[in-house]
Structures are given as C-alpha cells and as structure tokens.
C-alpha cells in the first residue's frame, strides 16, 4: 500500500536520494547531534532499529497507543495520546504549531491523509474535531483525497481492511486512472531515449502492441530507431513501454527471488504461462488481418507488453489470489488465457494483463469455494463406501 508513495518520494527531485535509510546506514551516520523521532509505537522492540535508541541522546516519541510495561525510557519528548485517532493526526497537529501557515509537500500530505483514513476506517471510528481539523490542514497542503480515498476505500477498507481486500489495490488504482484519464494512460505516446543520437533528446511513439492494434493487417513491430524488433530486443526490453514491465530478463530475476523466498506461488505463474501459450497458439493458427495482434508468435506474446510483469508480481498477490493448490492452477491458467484474448481481440485496448488479473480476483473466492466443496464431497463418498 505504501509502495506508490515511497516510489514517488524517491523519484522526486525535491528529496535527497538517501532520504530513506536502512538500519545499518542509520547507525553509521548517527552522532551526538542526531535526533531520533519514533512514531506509532512506544515500545523499543517494535521499532525498526532498537540499537539506534541506545546510541541517540535526543529522542522524541509520538504515539496514539496506550503505554505498557515496555516504554522508551530515555525520550526527551514523549507525546503519547491514546485519545487521538492516529499518529498521522498527531503529526499533522504538531506541524501546525511549528510555523504559522505551514505548507508541507503534497506527497507528504498524501501519506499523512492515507494514514488517518486507514486508522479511522475512512473517518468512521475514533474520529473527533481534531481528526477533521488535521484532515482539513492536509487538504489545504494539497493532499489528493480522490486518489487516496479510491485506493483505500474501494479496494481495501470497504471489504474489511488490510488483508481482506479481494482486488489488487495497485491494479484497481491503475484501472481507475486508465479509464478516468485514457489519453494520458493509453501508452500510445511513450517518451524514450535515442541513446547516443544527437538529433533529438527523445521522441514519442506507440508501444509495440499499440503499433499492432492500430495497423491494418500483419505488420512488423518497430523499435525506437525504426528498425524491426528482434526477439532478443523483446526479451531484454529494448522497446518503448512502462518502466519495469518491458524487460522479461529482469522480471525473471525478480521471479527467482520471489520463488527462493517463498513469497510467490509457482503454481499460479506456471499455469498462467501455460494458459497464455495455449491461447497464443490458438490465436496465431487463426490469425486474421482484422485482429493484427494474433500474428504474434506465442513467445512474442509472453515477452511484449505487461503480461510477464503481471503474472509474476500481480497475479501472485497472496491476499487476492486463490488459496487452494488446485484453485491456483485454475486461477493462473484463466489469467493467462483471458489476457491473450483481450490483447488479441480488443483492438481498442492492446493490453489485457491488468483486466485479466482484476477479473480473476473477483472469481478467486468462488474457485476456492468450489475446490473445497469438491474435496468435502469426495471425502464424504469415501466414508459412505467404507461404511
């Protein structure tokens, strides 16, 4: 949930590149003039780096949880307010007392506003006058309440909160932006570098799938320089597209890490690739000029667009995917097949990975229900036969 805001801060030129420190780097950089601010907890073991508290002479604590037997004892300031709705509310309140008419950056206002919404269940629990005053202050600072509210309310909190959302939050947000601002999110005009060419700094052009969708009949997929793309170019990601989704090689490296750490389910990924390959073979055997994307080979279908990224990083979300092993095979296979169907036969939308994952998010509980019931019925039949 915090990754988009985290990335936005890192990408902003207004912040230093090392604004986020690891515990080891923080321990290396601390000195006698450093101040450590602890938020949302007053228990040393729950902090990111308890050793940092031992080395710091100046510590401030802001928290809205009740104090227990374990507290940060050497704090210069300990502002613990159990009646506050959230620590983000407390931070917003304190900021207003520092400088009159203070204006914090909009991305920081987004972070604080999102924190208040999550802790209060969208201003439904533990809210008071101070909560709404803090929210009003953040709104004046430029908090984008539409973006924050849509992602938090419709994709997460309305279905029970963290861990209960049935749709992938990141994809819901992207789908909302795609359909609300289609011209900006279409991918038809992607700015890319021309390398060492001194003619221009960059140029805008359609992505490979965008080229095919707008062509009449079978057409070559062209790269940045106007030459046809080779399979190696597609695999390495040397073509226009969204950052992070074009290089199948890099995605495979990420896949290896996810599988090694046990985070992602190989069943979903393998069945998704199988479903995409089978549907690509079927579409390619019945290729027609009316649907130019059908001329792509199965391997090209896997390397182009956002399919590889979606099947590895989005479809494997443990909260929104199927839980049963058989259900994972069905879930992944249908994502792969539906993604290729949308990509090939909907020329107005030359990419189907996002919609395929969101569609199967909706059916994942039903698939698990059917699988579990089938197992129960099978065991009941065994019991009846034995008796």
Instruction: Please estimate the helix content.
Output: 40-55%
Q: Can you tell me the residue ranges where pLDDT is under 50 for at least 5 consecutive residues?
A: 198-202
Rough outline: globular
Helix-strand pattern: HHEHEEHHHHHHEEHHHHHHHH
Number of helical runs? 17
The biggest beta sheet is recorded as: 3 strands, parallel
Q: Which strand-content bin applies to the residues?
A: 5-15%
Description of the structure:
The protein has 387 residues and is mainly alpha-helical. The protein is 52% helix and 6% strand. The chain has helices spanning 3-11, 23-29, 50-55, 87-98, 106-119, 129-140, 145-154, 169-180, 182-185, 208-213, 231-236, 248-261, 266-285, 298-303, 307-314, 325-345, 353-386; strands spanning 35-39, 58-63, 77-80, 190-193, 202-205. The strands form two sheets. It has a three-stranded parallel β-sheet with strand order 1-2-3. A two-stranded antiparallel ribbon has the order 4-5. Strand 4 (190-193) and strand 5 (202-205) form a beta hairpin. The longest helix has 34 residues, at 353-386. Mean pLDDT is 82; it is low at 198-202.
